[in-house]
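Progress note, sequence design subtask.
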């Protein structure tokens, strides 16, 4: 697949009345913008295989199903939320803003692109819409749960809500996972339910994440 083919293929699927785009074309769009592969499933091997964006997408899908929301759209939002990560090189003043530009230029709906833009909590905040709240929580909890699995040799089935709850309280464990963002989910459901859904989502995607 040539680099410039991805956006053209994506346009076949991107917009619909419900703003749904299919996962496979979304991955094609994502790949050219993540040269180190860290956020793209199946782009290159990563230690233990977990990829942040794909993990976030899996969690977003399960949360959407639980809430009766559009699971396909939420999954795509999770997959594309960090599309500009390697471009901005840690510049959080640009993160999300560049993602919005990339998505709009490639024909992604304004609704999805704007959610990607606003997910940068350092620039935005006051999240009220369920999809934005869920993205904040899923973005952070994915790393926490994967870290729990890696401690157990990558076995996601060995991770329980109780495990995550315990590790959540250990601030030094997976310290980069922002606990206050995970807690945002409490406006939609209790924490134990969220942990259960997140674990289920990662378990269903274990093949793509390199988990056992």
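Output:
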């Amino acid at each position: 697949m040539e680099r410039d083919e991805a956006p053209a293929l994506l346009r076949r699927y991107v917009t619909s009345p419900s703003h749904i785009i299919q996962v496979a074309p979304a991955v094609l769009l994502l790949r050219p913008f993540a040269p180190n592969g860290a956020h793209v499933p199946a782009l290159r091997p990563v230690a233990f295989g977990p990829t942040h964006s794909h993990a976030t997408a899996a969690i977003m899908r399960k949360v959407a199903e639980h809430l009766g929301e559009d699971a396909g759209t939420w999954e795509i939002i999770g997959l594309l939320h960090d599309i500009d990560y390697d471009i901005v090189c840690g510049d959080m003043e640009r993160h999300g803003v560049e993602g919005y530009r990339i998505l709009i230029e490639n024909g992604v709906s304004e609704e999805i692109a704007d959610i990607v833009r606003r997910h940068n909590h350092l620039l935005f905040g006051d999240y009220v819409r369920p999809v934005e709240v869920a993205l904040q929580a899923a973005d952070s909890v994915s790393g926490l749960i994967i870290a729990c699995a890696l401690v157990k040799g990558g076995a996601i089935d060995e991770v329980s809500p109780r495990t995550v709850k315990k590790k959540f309280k250990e601030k030094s464990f997976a310290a980069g996972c922002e606990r206050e963002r995970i807690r945002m989910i409490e406006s939609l459901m209790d924490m134990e339910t969220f942990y259960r859904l997140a674990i289920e989502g990662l378990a269903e995607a274990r093949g793509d994440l390199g988990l056992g």
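The chain has twelve helices and no strands. Work on this subtask will continue into the next period as scheduled.
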